[in-house]
């Protein structure tokens, strides 16, 4: 009986040690797992649409909204959002920016942050960029295929009897969207003249201001 009890004690201790090792390794395994796109690293939430596993979207998409919300709800202690993205959905980025601002997160670019990614970056309380990284701006665009699909899907509900009526709506909607975009930049502390300059580049190109330009314009800032 004594020998059996001794063996049982050894087995229990082995199980406890194994459980402890798994618990300690858990965060590291999560970081090195298949999800390289959105993961937690200590007090930092990493959003990297440029390092994706097979089958994952290589841009900011609408489904990211709920992912962000759930990650922040489930993980306490996150202070910073680290970004590396060439952009994506304007709607998704604006919703994620709202979440980032509401949680009072700091933002950091590590790599590149272009187009819609900048909307998320500007939501940060403190905004930083690692050495060698870049922030890029260009005008927003809407492909002919997407315009056609939008018109065909909504023309009956919206009363767009002809493409000309739809074109008139686009003209008004574009002005409203540009007003909201520029207002957002200024509200986030970006100098107004710089905000206007971000509209100078075609969507197929990028404008990468220098670090000094970004600091002077209020895009980068150390204090909330």
Summarize this structure briefly:
The chain has helices spanning 2-31, 64-74, 90-103, 116-121, 144-158, 163-187, 192-197, 211-217, and strands at 38-41, 44-48, 80-85, 106-114, 127-129, 134-136. With 224 residues, the protein is an alpha/beta fold.
Descriptive report:
With about 220 residues, the protein is α/β, with parallel strands linked by helices. The protein is built from eight helices and six strands. The chain has helices at about 1-30, 65-75, 90-105, 115-120, 145-160, 165-185, 190-195, 210-215, and strands at about 40, 45-50, 80-85, 105-115, 125-130, 135. Strands 1, 2, 3, 4, 5 and 6 form a six-stranded mixed beta sheet that branches. Helix 2 (about 65-75) runs parallel beside helix 3. The model is unreliable at about 1-35 (pLDDT under 50).
Number of strands: 6
Estimate the global geometry from the Cα principal axes. globular
* Major sheet summary line: 6 strands, mixed
Number of helices: 8
**What is the helix/strand order?**
HEEHEHEHEEHHHH
Classify the secondary structure makeup into a structural class: alpha/beta
- How far apart, in Å, are the first and last alpha carbons? 67 Å
User: Which regions are unreliable across 5 or more consecutive residues at pLDDT < 50?
Assistant: 1-34
Tell me what portion of residues adopts beta-strand conformation: 5-15%
Q: Measured on Cα atoms, how large is the radius of gyration?
A: 23 Å
Which whole number gives the mean pLDDT?
A: 86
The amount of helix comes to 40-55%
